[in-house]
Amino acid sequence: MKCKHAKQQQAAGKIRMPQRHFFAVFCFLLALFHFVPASAAEGAGAAARLDAKWGGHLKIHGQASFPPEDSPYRAIGPETFFDGSLEGRLKNTLFWDQRTRLDTHYEIVASGGDTRSADSELAKLLYGSAPDALLQRGIPSDELRLMNLTGVLREEDDFIVYHRLDRLALTLLPDWGTVTAGRQAVTWGNGFLFNPMDLFNPFSPADIEREYKLGDDMLFVQVPAAGGANLQALYVPRRDPVGGDICRDESSLAVKVHLFQGAAEFDLMAAAHYQDHVLGAGAAGYLGAAAWRVDVTWTLLDDDRTGEDYPSFVANVDYSWVWWGKNLYGFVEFFYSGVGEDDYRAALSDPDLTERLARGELFTLGKTYAAGHLRLEIHPLVNLFCTAIVNTADPSGIIQPRGTWDITGDLQLLLGADLFWGPKGSEFGGIPIAGTPYTTAAADRVYVWLAYYF
Question: Which of 159, 175, 191 is the last residue of a domain?
Fold first, then answer.
């Protein structure tokens, strides 16, 4: 159905699962499937056998950030902000007869520190109190998803504890293909840092941690074809932010064809995404020992929009080599955003841009970006990395040096930093905030992560 956008309608809380109950339902499902007696299946004449696979991780994150002099955080906080978090993820997969699988990922996160406390103080200065939307910043929101599987356990001005189901997907494997329904993650496109063809919860270009893409509630179908080709289709239902009903204007329906021609690969995509339509084409191949990739999308805006249809483009090349007995790997990437603006204040008032920023589909304000990445293997257990992203029009950018040490087979330590540069008025150097002496300049930071896998 089309969105009604009727203000008198109530939110979807009556339709969706109450947050306080989702964990109990999760535990009930696991118990139900895990303890089904094998004799029950045999008695029904089925040859099915239920098997379970468990895994997960624990991660401790700590960071120190240094807001610049023109940051509003310096007006209310210390010169150095200390923050931390503790994250646990429990993964379970249940198998039936190699044709049916249920994947469930439960995660619980506790985070807090000076940055969250400063956010609360700023909100009180501006609004008199800290709104829920600000206090829950950084928490994956399920408000517009089909299922509300996120719950806040405790919330204070300086810390929060929440838990959620990031995967809850049933997969069927009939002879003709694959069908997966539920909370899952699907990635389309050939970009490394920028990925215009990946419309569904893409990573930010500056994201360092990319083990798990945020899950979304969807129906995904894949059908193989001759020559290794395949057809993929997905449907992501979303809710009207006002009425709470599933509606067409907030949902996504997309198809993609993946083809092979010799050593080259090709993608063709078409999507009805929110109120717009997106067409895409991609290709990947080899140039000597290097691999190249290209994606182009064209977004056709809804007739009610005042903006113009626009293209986006990404291209990259990556290469591995050995130098002085050490393994190295690197890539360079170029990205063009057709919806980007050279005037950043105008960009922040452009609904076509701000809507994509708000829903986590786009992460940049400008038009053209160049990026590079280098990995050096010092030892099979020790690797050094450096990623750089540059807005070529400012110019301004971010440099991300880091290193990992695999202490044991299931314990890893990561040390790194995010360093921003650029003149005042540039995207990464800081955009002036009207009516104040402050800018939007991000804080440099250093961080340490310790991860245990089981």
Answer: 159
Please state the separation of Cα 260 from the chain's center in Å: 28
CB 340 within 8 A of CB 353: yes
89-112 confidence digits (pLDDT tens): 999 999 988 899 999 999 999 999
At residue 76, the pLDDT reads 83
Token pair listed for 91: 């993964």
Q: For the chain, what is the domain count?
A: 2
240 Cβ contact list (under 8 Å, min separation 6): 3, 4, 5, 9, 246, 247, 249, 250
**Domain membership of residue 372 as a residue range:** 261-454
Residue that terminates a domain, selected from 113, 141, 159: 159
Residue-wise pLDDT for 271-286, tens only, equals: 999 999 999 999 999 9
Q: Is residue 237 part of a domain?
A: no
Statement: residue 137 has pLDDT above 90: no
φ/ψ region of 422 (left if φ > 0, alpha if ψ in -120 to 50, else beta) reads left
| Bridge-based pairing state of the strands 178-184 and 159-172 | antiparallel
Asked if 151 and 265 sit in the same domain, the reply is no
Q: Is residue 37 part of a domain?
A: yes
Place of tokens 């970009």: 191
Give residues with Cβ within 8 angstroms of 406, minimum separation 6. 381, 382, 412
Could you tell me if 205 and 418 are in contact, meaning their C-beta atoms sit under 8 angstroms apart?
A: no
| Host H or E run for residue 279 | strand 276-287
Whether residue 287 is found in the same domain as residue 418:
yes
Closest CA to 367 of 318, 400, 332, 334: 334
Peptide bond into 196 cis (omega under 30): no
